[in-house]
Design brief:
Elements (H helix, E strand, L loop, with lengths): L5 E3 L2 E3 L4 E10 L5 E10 L2 E10 L7 H11 L7 E7 L4 H4 L24 H12 L6 E6 L5 E9 L4 H10 L3 E4 L7 H7 L4 E7 L6 H17 L14 E3 L2 E5 L4 E5 L6 E2 L4 E6 L5 E6 L4 E7 L3 E2 L4 E7 L3 H13 L1 H11 L14
Parallel strand pairs: 5-6, 5-7, 7-10, 8-9, 9-11
Antiparallel strand pairs: 1-2, 3-4, 4-6, 8-10, 8-17, 12-19, 13-15, 13-18, 14-17, 15-16, 17-19
Length: about 350
């Protein structure tokens, strides 16, 4: 047994104990504490320390729903290590239903922070020093930005073997390679020795059950892979690893008709969206520039020239697209996500009479 007590945010946590606590990150205009609620759960056996965070962008709530499901479910047991569950990391943005902090800064571009900098930098340093620097691994749950939706996917620096292991263990079926922007939570955490992955899925301002279920299963998969939970992982035999993505942008203004859904595989030259005026006189279409998988898309049907419409991840091998389609078709959670996300947009078959 790991008999040593650990102090988390001013409270001693014994082996086998779980506590609800909070991390004070700032003060309000009335001098009251601004704090992040955190659940710390320790197993009786020693093991890794892992954080699972959500709502780093305060309007991205699918991860919040997934973590709350973990907190409300008494059926799972932590066998080794310590787990930090943070349903809302950016409480100031969350309380305003906003991606950003009150000063319009993006907290996810301010890490590892600065104790004498802006409010965002100061918040970032407290979070980084108090959570990231004390953890061995991290999982950060996100959604698409406002007016967009994403099919669940993991994002990681695949040049880092540990990040690759975590991304594959999560089992989303789609893995995007990238270090993340400078100052982003996952990039700076990984650089500081805490390999961290990001998972994106769904859209802002809601908890979509199908997306939250994907995230919840993925978190459990990672904990099982790290030997922190018992049980077999539920991971596809083949996962699509994507190293290049492209937003396909509108060429004309007008009303879009979508011909693909988030999570669909597409082939080069396939019509993915068409564009018409309000009297349905079609005058433009968008084609896939390469074969790949639809990572995400706009949820706004009206566009102007240059606005992003469909986000495609490039696949070098069409065989991977077939494997992805087969996995989604046979996996109930991902199939449900595909069907659900398709209801957020109107998907139709392309017509023949389109002027490019």
């Amino acid at each position: 047994m790991n008999a040593k007590s650990e102090n988390w945010f001013g409270q001693d946590v014994q082996p086998g104990e779980a506590i609800s606590t909070e991390l004070v990150i700032s003060e309000s205009y009335s001098s009251r504490d601004v704090a992040i609620p955190i659940r710390v759960r320790r197993a009786t056996k020693p093991g890794p320390t892992v954080f699972v965070t959500a709502a780093l962008h305060g309007d991205e709530l699918n991860g919040t729903g997934a973590i709350r499901s973990m907190l409300a479910d008494p059926s799972w047991e932590l066998k080794a290590g310590t787990l930090l569950m943070v349903p809302v990391l950016n409480v100031l943005g969350f309380e305003r239903h906003s991606r950003y902090l009150p000063d319009r800064r993006d907290l996810n571009r301010c890490f590892p922070g600065n104790s004498t900098g802006s409010m965002a930098s100061r918040l970032a340093q407290v979070i980084f020093d108090s959570i990231v620097r004390r953890c061995d691994y991290g999982i950060d749950l996100h959604t698409a930005a406002v007016r967009r939706t994403n099919f669940p996917n993991a994002r990681a620096d695949l040049d880092n073997p540990t990040c690759l292991k975590l991304a594959e263990a999560f089992g989303s079926g789609i893995i995007l390679h990238g270090k993340g922007p400078k100052g982003s939570f996952r990039r700076e955490a990984t650089a500081a020795g805490c390999p961290t992955i990001v998972v994106e899925g769904g859209e802002v301002w809601k908890v979509e059950s199908s997306v939250a279920d994907c995230m919840l299963r993925g978190v459990f998969n990672v904990l099982k892979t790290l030997k922190m939970m018992d049980g077999e992982t539920d991971v596809p035999d083949h996962q699509a690893i994507i190293k290049q993505t492209k937003w396909i942008r509108a060429e004309r203004g007008g009303f879009m008709s979508m011909h693909v859904s988030p999570g669909d595989s597409v082939f080069k030259g396939q019509t993915i969206a068409s564009n018409s005026n309000l009297l349905t006189e079609e005058h433009s279409r968008l084609e896939a520039p390469f074969s790949g998988i639809v990572i995400g898309m706009t949820t706004l049907p009206a566009v102007q020239p240059g606005e992003p419409v469909v986000h495609i991840g490039r696949l070098a091998n069409p065989k991977v697209a077939r494997q992805h389609d087969e996995h989604v078709a046979t996996d109930e959670i991902q199939r449900t996500a595909l069907e659900h996300l398709a209801t957020n947009i109107q998907v139709t078959e392309p017509t023949e009479a389109i002027e490019s």
